[in-house]
Amino acid sequence: MFRRTSALIALIVAVAACSGGSSDLSLDEDGNPVLDPGDCLVVDVAVSSEKIELLSQLAADFTQSDLAETDDGECIVPIVQSKASGGAAQLLDGGWDEATEGPRPVIWSPASSAWGTVLNQRYETSGREPIANDSTPFMLTPLVIAMPRPMAEALGWPDEPLGWSDVLELARSDQGWADFGHPEWGAFRLGKTNPNFSTSGLSALIAQTYAAADKTSSISAEDLAKPEVIQYGADVESAVVHYGDTTLTFMNNWYRADQRGNPYAYVSAAAVEEKSVIDYNSGNPDGVLDQGEEPREPRVPLVAIYPEEGTLYSDNPMIVLDADWVDGEEKAAAAKFVEFVQLPENQEKVLEFGFRPGNPDVSLGAPIDASNGLDPAQPQTLLDVPDPAVAVSILDAWDTQRKSARVTLVIDVSGSMGDVADTSTGETKLDLAKRAAVDALDEFKDDDDVGLRIFTTDLDANGATFVDLVPPGRVGDVRENLANRIRDLVPLNGTPLYDVTAATYEELDASYDPTRINALVLLTDGQNDDGNGGDDARQLDALLDTLTRGAEGATSKPVRVFPIAYGGDADLGTLRRIAEASNGAVYDASDPRSITKVFTAVVSNF
């Protein structure tokens, strides 16, 4: 947090100097700088979140350098905003609304060049000229399999080479960790993000597919069609606890489990980038220290396994887009900023943030060392990024191979859901939520089981607080019915939040399906109000105790709760506690107009 703040202060000072002393700065809801650069030429830069601090700082430094001037003497100001790699790729494919997403970038810096490959293939498939062509690696971090040190040692680390074959063996085993002398650790559980959203998820998917095909390059569509490759992928996915749009959920949940004394119950391993292991072991699992937050090292550190079959670097390319919204002057200015961030003195700053320099002339050093469970001599085997068509085919194949889900959608239909959310259209919070929920149904695969439950007070003469409108069923069979029932929802009475959460959780726990991701998606716009004047604190404590006991232990049946705090009156703090107790994740839709994006992010867990 302190580095981020310093970078923004430096940026406003730099812009003020560059623009004759006048600039205004504020922060948007994502913490990105919003400022007036005066008469300077603006180069908009969209970067993945892990490097927003560093590139904001370098953008400020750039404006004070000799490079920050066009050939005609006009000053240049890079404006950096954070955009998730997969989300940006989807937006650049044709859905970038500048009113909600900010300006379209001149420079795009996803976490990996693989996203440029995917975007270009989508452009070519639709008959358009590719736009992600001119790129320069900025900083590097390899995909690793992170694992608590004792678990890795049980597999032979650091003396034995380990990789996806070991993950596959554990995933296929009925005995789990008992095969390695540790029955108390239970089944093998894998953390792995959704490859449509997350770079680590995409890299992991590519790496495991290469391992399945026993190749390190030139993987083909024919390889993907082989039964053994398909089965390999499905078996690895069978061990996944849930997916998601970011690895931060895994790292934060893992860290909380560690602080409670048992890091082994949540996940056994997670496919993350090397940088995440550094952050975790320093006591900063999400890589961001809030003001006043003191890092505390974990009880059990993680180590990085560099898959012996090979892995990929996230090379964080600086891509100057060949897009119709980028003119020649902007491209020339962007090239100067790319040149600036490659200078040795700037590449040395990359190490301070836990990455490997993209400039090969800059030496590797701390924190990339054994004290953090890392091996600077690794990885020994690098995998080629697949051809564009093959990369897209790998993503398409994952949609059928990924672990199936069993999800209950629990939607608040209390009276406040009838409040107007968008004054320009007159739409209510419930109107927006219904549209988002219906759209999100397309993100489920046909084999997922999904049910619909609504909650409010006094649903019948007996005072029922919830009712099932669509019982859990295969989405391919009930998608249309789900959509119709959602569209028919109307706002009613109170908000019996704790009652419905406890009851739904207990039902999912009682009917737990170990072959699926079992979860509860809870959308609510208010605080607990059951109309009975009950003891809210006691109810909440009982609920949290039930969720925590269900999430811990080698034989636990993990049912995860993913709450959506909807609107400004939602009890975000309490919903966060509910999510954390179940090792789920909370999603903030305090601006109701963001609900479509948020709902899509929630469903990325399945």
In short:
By secondary structure, this protein is α/β, with parallel strands linked by helices.
Oligomer: single chain
Q: What is the general shape?
A: globular
Radius of gyration (Å): 24 Å
Going by CATH, what is the homologous superfamily of the largest domain?
A: Periplasmic binding protein-like II
Uncertain segments are 1-27
How many beta-strand segments? 21
Helix vs. strand class: alpha/beta
CATH class of the largest domain: Alpha Beta
What value does the average pLDDT take?
A: 91
The percent range for helix content is 25-40%
Tell me the domain tally.
3
- β-strand percent reads 15-25%
Quickly give the CATH architecture of the largest domain. Answer: 3-Layer(aba) Sandwich
Given the structure, what is the number of helices?
21
State the major sheet. Answer: 6 strands, mixed
Distance between the termini: 31 Å
| CATH third-tier fold name of the largest domain | D-Maltodextrin-Binding Protein, domain 2
Walkthrough of the structure:
This protein has 606 residues and is of the alpha/beta class. The strands form 5 sheets. Strands 7, 8, 9, 10, 11 and 13 form a 6-stranded mixed sheet that branches. It has a 6-stranded mixed sheet with strand order 18-17-14-19-20-21, with helices on both faces. Helix 1 packs parallel to helix 2, helix 3 (85-95) packs parallel to helix 5 and helix 10 packs across helix 15 (388-401). The chain is globular and about 75 Å long.
Task: Describe how the helices and strands are arranged.
Layout: H1 2-18, E1 25-27, E2 33-35, E3 41-47, H2 52-62, E4 76-82, H3 85-95, H4 98-101, E5 107-109, H5 113-125, E6 134-137, E7 139-148, H6 149-154, H7 164-172, E8 190-191, H8 199-213, H9 221-224, H10 227-237, H11 248-259, E9 269-273, H12 274-281, E10 302-305, E11 313-314, E12 317-320, H13 328-341, H14 344-352, E13 356-357, H15 388-401, E14 405-412, E15 420-422, E16 427-428, H16 429-440, E17 449-455, E18 466-474, H17 475-487, H18 497-510, E19 517-524, H19 536-551, E20 559-566, H20 572-581, E21 587-589, H21 595-603
Parallel strand pairs: 3-4, 3-5, 8-9, 14-17, 14-19, 19-20, 20-21
Antiparallel strand pairs: 1-2, 5-12, 6-12, 7-9, 7-10, 7-11, 7-13, 15-16, 17-18
Helix pairs in contact: 1-2, 3-5, 5-15, 7-10, 8-10, 8-15, 10-15, 16-17, 16-21, 18-19, 19-20
